Amino acid sequence: MTFSTPVRDMAFALDRMAGFGALEKTGAFPDLSDELVSAILEEMGKYCDNVVAPLNEKSDTEGAVLENGVVRTTPGFKEAYQHYVDGGWNALAFPPEAGGQGLPQALAVALVDGLNAACMSFAIGTTLTTSAVKALLHAGTPEQKNLYLEKMISGEWTATMNLTEPQAGSDLSGVRTKAEPTGDGDYKISGQKIFITHGDHDMTDNIVHLVLARLPDAPEGTAGISMFLVPKVRVNEDGSLGEANDVQCVGLEEKMGLHGSPTSVMAFGENGRCLGTLLGQEHKGLKNMFVMMNAARLDVGMQGVGVAERAYQRALAYAQERKQGRMPGVKTGDQVSIYEHADVRRMLYSMKSLVEASRAICYANAVAYDLARHSPDEDLRRRAKAHEELLTPISKAWSTDRANEITSLGVQVHGGTGFVEESGAAQHMRDVRVAAIYEGTNGIQAMDLVSRKLQGDGGAAARVFIKNVQEEAVIVKASKRTDLSHIGDRLQAAGEALARSTDWLLENSAKDQGHALAGATPYLKQFGNAAGGYYLTRGAVAAALAINEGGGDEAYFESKIAIARFYADNYLTEAVGLTDAVTAGAEVVARLDPDLLSA
User: Fold this and answer.
1) Residues 32 and 175 in one domain
2) Tens digits of per-residue pLDDT, 105-129?
3) Which range among 86-100, 111-125, 284-298 shows the weakest confidence by mean pLDDT?
4) How many domains does the chain have?
5) CATH number of domain containing 213
6) pTM over 0.90
7) In a domain? residue 304
């Protein structure tokens, strides 16, 4: 299968759905222009298509291996990563004074989209490095930044996030890794971490681990966690590399997918010689780690979009090639491609519309991130920050849940061939499955949405977004185009349903938090459905304007309207029905004796 980075769709989503144009108005990006964005997306597409994408199937069959204490990645990864560093891709959105290119985060998120569509096993390591840079910029000392920042921003050194331990998964209160002060500013680190993405590899000569650990006097629970910067190879005062730092990969996980990504069991200080430095304040490690985790959560949502895009492209190509059956009423003659069958098109349109909705939500999240940090208007920064925080759990959870659905549909379009590994369709389903699990399971994202985000501000940010949805619906309903007016009707109904769910959760969670937790997952799904419809509607309106103005490819713009119409009829209607699930209350998941549920 030939993969092609959807550069045109990316540009359309940024400009016509996610509001990227607002970033130019901030004045924070003086070099930003349509021409520059187009050039970046085109070059990114070439790199992803020609260098990274050919590695995807090989990464599945020739995954990372641990040999004599050395982790070796899929053949071609090391060379592709050097292209990544040489192209300056890692530095895209970081401050120029720190060695970055000073461009919007939204463009870096588009890069994550393209890289993950090309090869998720390869791309996943780059996102942890960029997330770690944000943590270092936020909490690092001048000395730490001087030693590490330039190499991490360039990508010459990669980075990892070390949270999980055998007894401490999503609940980090059980972290046991120790950090003992040496008296000269360093700390002896000892303990084991599991599920560490790209924890070791052969692509760079150093890896910077951000490790959660406890000081000797640390209080119990998450309040006693500190974060430490622990390099694989110690760094001398002049920035040169010194001796190995007693950090070892002692095993690679055998996984369902992502075989090319070395998911490592990491041992720190087995010989008593692992040194690290405190990153941020003592006992504030989890707070600092959330800077990295929130960045990673948006990137994980983008992983879902990327892999779903590739699954869609594969399914679409197969549907046009595969001949089977005839049109209704036709008894003889040549068979037609399965694309001509209505149910196959239904599956493909489902895949396409969900990919586009997910992409738009994540891109809008990234635009809000940029506005929150760069707008000269203090009130706009505040509103953008609230919007960014609201969209983050939706970007992560809704996009990856839908990616699991999309990749499953990709297998279904292939029929029996899809169940056979040779088709390649199953790899996408296996690779993306973990995205709904890590960086906080999607259930945790839903709980975050209804607790910290919804209840945290009394529903203010959610109601602002719902108001935007309803205002857009009113505008579109007035369109002279019947398809746009129809979309407006569906969007209005979804917005009203989301408003009812929001009001019910706020009112009833005050009485019993169990109501909010029971309704959290259907609420996130409803919110994601409505948000996806909102952004697709914006795109449909923009497409209609482009058609009226006579610019560009009319057929392309008409397809955007058609896909938005399909989504409205299938997923905005689903949003309306989810209010009943949201408002069912805690009783619906009241505890049953497990023995009664057994066979």
Assistant:
1) no
2) 999 999 999 999 999 999 999 999 9
3) 284-298
4) 3
5) 2.40.110.20
6) yes
7) no
